[in-house]
Amino acid sequence: FWQIYGELFLDHFSGGADAECIVYHLVNDTHSDYTICPQKEWLVVLLLVVYLVVTVIILLNLLIAMFNDTYAAVQSESNLLWKFQRHRVVTDYMLMSVIPHPLAWIYYLLKPLSSKDARQR
To answer: Count H helices, E strands: the chain?
Structure first.
């Protein structure tokens, strides 16, 4: 479990067999040395596990929210782009000749006459 988080220095938190003891030298006391060695505390390790799990859950939730926001922005942009492209295709087909290409020159000659008739009506 701890390997996914990298080096956490768990010996300092949980007090292993090779943990370093701190020696205090007291001057005005009959005992000249006072030694404190770290003891194994399960609460420290439990709090560290809870902190790391909650942090991962919050970061995953943040990542999902960012992906959702990016997806919504791309979706709205793509919808707008699709409408522009559809308008362009419809406009291109409106301007195209109805007659096949070998005879299309007849259409282009008669088109100005039909547009003048439509303006006069």
So the answer is: 3, 2
For 12-34, how does the pLDDT look when each residue is reduced to its tens digit (9 = 90+)? Answer: 655 555 557 777 776 665 656 76
Q: 102: which 2 tokens?
A: 């070998």
Q: Name the token pair of 15.
A: 């007090």
Residues of the chain with pLDDT under 70: 1-5, 7-19, 26-32, 34, 38-40, 115-121
The structure tokens listed for 99 are: 């007659």
Structure tokens at 35: 């030694």
Length of the chain: 121
Q: What is the 3-state secondary structure (H, E, C) of 34-49?
A: EEECCCCCHHHHHHHH
Write the single-letter amino acid at 109: L
Strand partners, 25: 33
Whether the full predicted model's pTM is greater than 0.85, yes or no, is no
Beta pairing, strands 22-25 & 33-36 = antiparallel
CA-angle at 49, arms to 65 and 44, nearest 5°: 140
Tell me the three state secondary structure of residue 16.
Answer: coil
